[in-house]
Amino acid sequence: MDPGVRAPLLVLGLPFAAFLLLAVVAPVRRAGRVAGAVSILATGIALVAALVIWSDGTDGAATWAWIPADGGPMATVGLLVDPLSSAMLVLVTLVSLLVQVYSLAYLGDEGAPSLGRYYTYQSLFAFSMLGLVLSPSFVQMFVFWELVGLCSYLLIGYWYERPSAARAAVKAFWVTKLGDLGFVVGIVMLWAATGTFEFHALFAKAQEHALAIEGLGTIMFLIYLGAVGKSAQFPLHVWLPDAMEGPTPVSALIHAATMVTAGVFLVARAQPLFALTPGVLTLIGWVGAFTALLAASMACVEGDIKRVLAYSTVSQLGYMMAAAGAGASYASFLHLLTHGLFKALLFLGAGAVIHAVGTNDIFRMGGLFRAMPQTGVVFVVGTLALAGVPPLAGFFSKEAILAGVWDAEMRGPFLMLALTTFLTAFYMFRVVFLAFFGRAHAPGHPHEPPLAMRGPLWLLAALTVLVGLRLGLAQGGAHHGPGWLAPASIALALGGILLAWATYQRGAVDPARLADTFPLSTLDFLARRRYGLDALYGGLYRGFILGFSRLIGWIDRYLVDGVLNFLSAWTLRSGDLLRRVQSGQPQDYVYGVAFGVLLLFIWAQWWR
Amino acid sequence: MTLEALGFWVVAAALVASSLAVVLTPNLFHAVLYLAAALVATGVVFLLLDSPFLFGVQLLLYAGGVVTIVVFAIMLTERLVGERLTQTSRYVVNGAVVATAVFVGVAGFLIQVPRGGARPALPGDLTPAIGRALLGPWAATLELLAVLLVVALLGALYFARTED
Amino acid sequence: MSLYGYLTLAALVFAIGLFGVLTRRNAIGILLGIELMLNAVNINLVAFARFHADVAGLVFTLFTIAITVAEVAVGLAIVIAIFRVRRTVEADRLDLLRG
User: Fold this and answer.
1) Does C82 touch chain B (CB under 8 A)?
2) Cβ separation of B102 and C15 shorter than 8 Å?
3) If you compute the radius of gyration of chain A from its CA atoms, what whole number of angstroms results?
4) Which helix (H) or strand (E) holds B1?
5) CB pairs under 8 A between A and C
């Protein structure tokens, strides 16, 4: 076997082996912590292998034929290792590992069989996500795309006895499925036009300008729809806030760092194709920026800490998509990586808080910094990174995005993103001030989380700082884009922090009065009701889908079953009638014979 | 009308009349007697058809044997019941309609064929020919018939035995 | 008389016998009807034998007579057996074949 293939196979194969072991060998799975150990071990070794690949800088692909056809296989399976996928490998395995370690403590109260089930899903997810980033073709990516969606469903609905969790899992599934529909139609149309699913073949064709096919714009738009669903862009963003029903480590892993970034990854991976359809790219940019602003506005009025972080994720995904739409895919991907780090950090920190206080409601928290200083510190670090304050990682990637959007001359998106920067800082520090400072009126005695939870937190915080420093040093003094951009973005961030401080810490500005002033009052009203989108989807779902299923049910009960019931009743009744022919009187039978003979006479007369 | 034709009409009338009587008499015993008459009439028809041997067989077996058997059966069933069985008929009109229809059906075929055709000449008495046929081409059938009669005899004995 | 005269006579007797089978209530009465029908068949056979100068018809008639005798014997034996059990020979009551 080619030595270059061994490492990626290891990365992909170990989580899969862990999953198989846990899925098939029930005793191992039912011994909860043992299952956790298996999963963590597999992911840990995979991380080491991923680091080796990343530092080696390998670039290549290995494929094996899968679906045979004339003139070469119709579809292949394989591994594609390049800078894009190797960076993702490290991110996925790292965050996976940290989350799994964290879960040992966070889900420590779960029953052992239940915990084993959790780690089985975690291993499956790691395998699916890694397979997705290593895909060398659209079809393999789609297969893993769906697998990842399945894992999301399983993990959101982990506490399946809770009706809200079950509903949220189904909602996530349905909404992302809408996007996936577009995705699969798009890749099939692309294959019909070009005859291949492979990336390298398609990109080569794009380079040689041999890809001028009719409807490429439609195809790329359909493929983009998959990203809309998976990366929670407007209007398919509604599933992500509800997905917070899952355990917090799950939210940190798949709804912050990895699964939702699959859409951004797709756009980055297929960038040579998207570059041929500037119209679609512009759409991506606008939708991304709009999503960012919309989600930020909704985060400002949320009281549930996880929901705030969920909207924040939607908003940041919008940033990444806007950058991709502006053609700055480097900035987009960079933000994907940094955001993965500090958003996971924030979620895990929120998890520590929830674990300590027993509630998600920030208005019931307060003064937690005194009780949990370590958690407070790492949470503030994460918040500063998210707000885009140098020298933390978030600042550089966000600045790169803003520069990219400005350079692409997309003024509308730029304004939206700038406003979002301000709002991001505002709502995140709102959470910080409400939860960690101020008067402590949380019930019970909150305390620091155990080491298994604190370790990942510190590691992620350290990485956030280090990556930020590294990026800063690499850039040196050079800035992206126009000279006024960096100070402007810092100013917006600080402005947001200031407003939050004034409103929630100082009490100088009354939030209620602020919300009542026009035009904020209408926005406040709409944001609290999530702009009616959830209600709209719910209504459409109830109206169309449930109505349709009721119709089908009626048809099944009355028409299909009705036909069968009618046939069987008719059979019974006619049998009953025919029974009367058997009177038992022999002379009646002779009558029958005589009638038969008469019929024969008639037949003989007429047929001759 | 020739003598032969006259004879035919007389015998035919007798036959039909006695047949009607068989099926219409309420009294079963009378019906059996009328049957005997019908069977004798049939025998005469055989005579008219130049088959004296069959006339003899008819009288012996049918008019003699069958009628005797039926009489015995009536006696047995009548005796056991203790009274004379009166006969009433069942759905006379239906039966009449069907029977008439069957007759009309057959007659319909007969009408379509042209009349005529005299009797071919006969090479003397056919009785030896019958004998030769029975032991010749029809020998196997004869043997089977014998088996049938034995079986029937045994069956009748079995059915009619008294339970001990 | 031509062949068809005899055939018509036989058809008539057959129809009368059929009428008897269909309408008689007593089982023995039905057997009498059957006798008439078989008789009519014999007339047919003999007439064909005579008008086609074929002895096979006569042989066949002999067989028919013999079989009829056997059939009557067995049939009446059955009637008597049923009578012993059911105490009646009325065909209406003998509906064991009822479905």
Assistant:
1) no
2) yes
3) 30
4) none
5) 34
Whether the predicted model's global pTM rises above the 0.80 cut = no
Q: Considering only CB atoms, which chain B residues are within 8 Å of A587?
A: 90
Residue A226's SS3 state is helix
Q: What is the CA radius of gyration of chain C?
A: 17
Number of H helices, E strands in chain A: 28, 2
CB crowding B32-54: b at 16 or more within 10 Å, else e: bbbbbbbbbbbbbbbbbbebebb
Chains touching chain B, criterion 3+ CB pairs below 8 Å: A, C
Query: Which contiguous run of DSSP H or E holds residue A556?
Result: none
Tokens coding A131:
């397979």
Q: Please, what sign has the CA dihedral across residues A299, A305, A307, A311?
A: positive
Q: From the CA of B48, how many Å to the nearest CA of chain A?
A: 30
Subunit contact A582:C97, Cβ cutoff 8 A: yes
Is A582's CB within 8 Å of C99's CB? yes
- In angstroms, the CA A66 to CA A61 distance is 15
* Domains, chain C, with CATH or none: 3-93 (1.10.287.3510)
Per-residue pLDDT tens for A516-554? 666 677 777 777 777 788 888 888 888 888 889 899 999
Instruction: Say whether pLDDT at A477 is over 70.
Output: no
Report angle CA B49, B52, B57 to the nearest 5 degrees. Answer: 115
pLDDT at A515: 67
DSSP secondary structure of A15-76: HHHHHHHHHH-HHHHHSHHHHHHHHHHHHHHHHHHHHHHHHHT--EEEEEEEE--TTS-SEE
Do residues A311 and A302 touch, judged by C-beta distance below 8 A?
A: yes
CATH code for position B70: 1.20.120.1200
Hey, how many other C-beta atoms are within 10 angstroms of the C-beta on B70?
23
The total of structural domains in chain B comes to 2
CB burial of C47-81 (b: ≥16 within 10 Å; e: otherwise) equals: bbbbbeeebebbbbbbbebbebbbbbbbbbbebbb
Cα–Cα dist A396/A468, whole Å = 7
- B93, B25: one domain: yes
Whole-complex ipTM: 0.90
CB atoms within 10 A of CB A260: 29
Q: Cα A334–A337–A343 angle (5° rounding)?
A: 125
Of B87, B102, B118, the position where a domain reaches its end is B118
Residue with tokens 């590691």: A459
Tokens of A83: 């800078």
Pull the structure tokens for residue A213: 């096919």
Q: Within this chain, do residues B102 and B138 fall inside the same structural domain, yes or no?
A: no
Same domain membership, residue B157 and residue B138: yes
A603: nearest CA in chain B? B105
Task: Please indicate, yes or no, whether residues B96 and B141 belong to a single structural domain of this protein.
Answer: no
B83 in the same domain as B153: no
| Minimal Cβ distance to C18: which of A581, A584, A594 | A594
Domain that holds residue B53: 3-118
Under DSSP, is residue A161 helix (H, G, I), strand (E, B) or coil? coil
Shortest Cα–Cα distance, B100 to chain A (Å): 11
Say whether both B37 and B108 belong to one domain.
yes
CB contact under 8 A, B109 and A601: yes
pLDDT in tens, B13-61: 999 999 999 998 888 888 899 999 999 999 999 998 888 999 999 999 8
For residue A382, give the amino acid letter: G
> What distance in Å separates residue B105's CA from the closest CA in chain A?
6
d(C-alpha A454, C-alpha A356), whole Å? 13
Closest Cα in chain C, distance from residue A566 (Å): 24
Q: Is residue B25 domain-shared with residue B44, that is, in the same domain?
A: yes
- How many CB pairs (< 8 A) connect B and C? 229
Give me the residues of chain B with pLDDT under 70, please.
1, 78-90, 116-117, 123, 164
In this structure, the answer to whether residues B26 and B49 fall within a common structural domain is: yes
